[in-house]
Structures are given as structure tokens and as C-alpha cells.
């Protein structure tokens, strides 16, 4: 089951995390997790470029290591890069020291390969312990989301994913898609139409 929106009581449990943003006008904050992945991330870039849209990419450090030229392309097109750990770790299943080391390793590879420093972090699966969050929040803003597309769940019909994504997006929404191998067959079916519908409503996109 995919919860396309995050209940407010959960957001209130973690008030220091960023779930949405105040928008100037009708801005939407597009985010993509898990890349860069050849064949997927570049497709996303093409679709964004067609519409002059910007997004924030929460990158896995090991993917940056393997596909640094693609990560550089994301950056060169004016998008924002952020930390998503080096190995896509589940914070609930990883001890604190290992998790923090992985977080720092992702920071380092982004700086070494791309020459940028990021101050944004998103925990894979949205899961991290309070101890992990306390330490990371000393240097980074922890960004969550308030609209989850469900693009990664191959059991969902793509038409339903599109409908729910459009229905649950509003001004100030932080929208979560994935540029990973699992979504390679789904994104072409939903992302172009989703982006078109944003434009049809007169909404713009912005980085975080």
C-alpha cells in the first residue's frame, strides 16, 4: 500500500523536518531520489528541460561514484543535488555509527566528484532514528515530502499513480519521484503527463 500523502499527525511528530514549503505563487518542489541512473535520470532531465522546470535530486553516493558524468549533467542543467546516503541505507536497520559514516561518505563523493557542498538530506525510505536525525540536523536540513507518487510500486496501475499524484499535489508540495532502475518503465508513462498538468494549472517548479 502506498500513502500518497503524509498524515498531518506524522508531520507534527517530526516538526523539525521539512515536509512542504511556503510557495511564492503556485510553486511545486519536485524531487527525485536514488539516482543518478543511466537511462532514467537522463530521461527525467529531458522532460524537465522541455518545460524549463527545475528539481532537486537526492543522490545515492555510490551512484554518483559510478555515474559521475550523469551527476554533473544534472548539476549543469541548473538542478539541485542533495544527500541520500552512500549505500541507500535504512536508518532503522543500521547502527548509528555506520549510518553516519555512510551519510558523510555521500557528502564527500558529491564534493570530490562535483565540487559542490549540499546542506540537504533525505533518509532512504524516510526512515532514520532520532539519534541519527539529531546528528545530521546539526549540519543538514532533513527534507521529507508531502506527496509520494508511488512510482516505485510496480503493483500499482500507472494510470492510478498519475491520478493520485496530480490529485495530491498543491502549491508548496514537496513531490517525490524516483530516478532508479525500478521506475524506468513507469516514469515514461506518468512523468510527462504529470508535468504537463502542472503547467496546465499555471504552476511552476523550484529547487529546495
Task: Give a description of the structure.
This protein is of the alpha/beta class and 208 residues long. It has eight helices and eight strands. Helix 2 runs parallel beside helix 8 and helix 5 (96-114) runs parallel beside helix 6. The chain is globular and about 45 Å long.
What topology emerges from the helices and strands here?
Blueprint: H1 8-13, E1 27-33, H2 41-50, E2 55-59, H3 61-66, H4 68-76, E3 80-83, H5 96-114, E4 120-121, H6 130-136, E5 141-142, E6 147-148, H7 158-167, E7 174-178, H8 187-200, E8 204-205
Parallel strand pairs: 1-2, 1-7, 1-8, 2-3, 4-5, 6-7
Helix pairs in contact: 2-8, 5-6, 7-8
Number of strands: 8
Which geometry do the CA atoms define? globular
Helix content: 25-40%
Strand/helix succession: HEHEHHEHEHEEHEHE
Beta-strand content bin: 5-15%
What does the largest sheet look like? 6 strands, parallel
Structural class: alpha/beta
Terminal-residue CA separation:
28 Å
Low-confidence stretches: none
What attributes characterize this protein structure?
208 residues, 39% helix, alpha/beta, six-stranded parallel beta sheet
What does this entry show, briefly?
With 208 residues, the chain is an alpha/beta fold. It has helices at 8-13, 41-50, 61-66, 68-76, 96-114, 130-136, 158-167, 187-200; strands spanning 27-33, 55-59, 80-83, 120-121, 141-142, 147-148, 174-178, 204-205.
Amino acid at each position: 500500500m502506498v500513502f500518497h500523502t503524509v498524515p498531518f499527525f506524522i508531520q507534527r511528530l517530526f516538526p523539525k523536518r521539512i515536509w512542504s514549503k511556503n510557495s511564492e505563487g503556485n510553486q511545486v518542489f519536485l524531487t527525485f531520489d536514488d539516482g543518478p541512473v543511466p537511462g532514467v535520470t537522463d530521461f527525467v532531465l529531458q522532460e524537465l528541460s522541455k518545460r524549463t522546470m527545475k528539481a532537486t535530486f537526492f543522490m545515492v553516493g555510490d551512484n554518483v561514484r559510478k555515474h559521475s558524468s550523469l551527476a554533473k549533467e544534472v548539476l549543469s542543467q541548473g538542478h539541485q543535488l542533495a544527500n541520500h546516503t552512500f549505500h541507500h541505507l535504512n536508518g532503522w536497520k543500521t547502527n548509528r555509527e555506520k549510518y553516519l559514516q555512510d551519510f558523510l561518505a555521500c557528502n564527500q563523493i558529491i564534493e570530490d566528484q562535483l565540487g559542490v557542498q549540499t546542506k540537504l538530506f533525505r533518509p532512504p525510505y524516510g526512515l532514520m532514528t532520532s539519534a541519527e536525525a539529531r546528528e545530521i540536523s546539526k549540519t543538514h536540513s532533513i527534507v521529507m515530502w508531502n506527496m509520494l507518487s508511488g512510482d516505485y510500486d510496480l503493483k500499482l496501475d500507472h494510470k492510478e499513480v498519475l491520478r493520485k499524484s496530480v490529485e495530491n499535489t498543491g502549491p508548496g508540495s514537496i513531490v517525490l519521484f524516483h530516478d532508479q532502475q525500478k521506475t524506468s518503465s513507469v516514469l515514461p508513462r506518468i512523468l510527462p503527463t504529470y508535468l504537463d498538468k502542472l503547467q496546465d494549472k499555471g504552476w511552476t517548479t523550484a529547487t529546495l
